[in-house]
Hints:
By secondary structure, the protein is mainly alpha-helical. It folds into two domains: 3-61; 66-286, Collagenase (Catalytic Domain). Helix content is 59%, strand content 5%. The protein has helices spanning 3-29, 31-61, 66-75, 77-80, 84-100, 113-127, 174-182, 190-200, 215-233, 247-260, 262-268, 270-280; strands spanning 102-104, 140-144, 162-164, 170-173. The chain has a four-stranded mixed β-sheet with strand order 1-2-4-3. The chain starts with a helix and ends in a 16-residue tail after the last helix.
Amino acid sequence: MSDSAIDLGAAIGALLVGAALGLLLGLRFGPPVGIVIALVVAIALYLLKTRRTRRRRALARAPFPASMRAVLEERVEYYQRLSPDERRRFEDEVRFFLDEQTITGPRGAALDERLRVLVAASAVMVVFGRRGFRYPKLRDVVVYDEAFDEEYREGHAKHILGMVHGQGPILFSARALEHGFANTRDGLNVGVHEFAHVLDFDTGQADGVPSFMPWNSVTPWLSVMHDEAQRIERRRSILRGYATTNEAEFFAVATEAFFERPRAMRDKHPELYALLRDTFGQDPASSPTEAPRGDA
């Protein structure tokens, strides 16, 4: 896409948003106020959109860092299964995420590149099938060395491996994050789990129904959640018991299983798998390069 096409698309989008906001405020405060606000909002959105798009294009033209590619090749099985063209797109999305988001240790401490790449890979995995999806820069990501408690105190005896609250920061345990990528068939990946919560919070409240779920999937999804919770209680589901905590945790746990145990989910819970396949725009169980180990 040419820069002129990008500018035109950004201008149209900014004008539409600005016009809508200006109309609403114009009805309350009068047309002159509405027009001024519409112009200010449209210009601000246009500048922000084109600036980010041009920065992304500049980043994509630069060689992908070899050290970051080494982390993906060694630690991220999802990346390993991609075609060469998909790998390049995945790499671009990883570096866009790292460029646009703040990822640190506690109290802003510098974080090892390996952990930063694993955080970004987690974020990209869950939206890779949704081309054009962009995480807004609304949250910081903080990675602790160990598990932590509600007071953010670390230690082997602590019980929280990851956390997302409303519009607050995303928190991870480094040990749990690395475990998720080292053990890819146990249905546990805290990175995928917490970014599923981020997607669920996209509309303001986590209710187990992310905003990009197809509208015609919502009703069957609510039914499947209810039925699957009963199977979990009877220990007839591949989902772990934590999924029955509430609707938000069901979606996050199911998302972990969808990416970590896709063939098992497709074979044992085909309706659940189909709904998640349509939601994420991905079909990991049918990946021709997926190693069949562990999912029989």
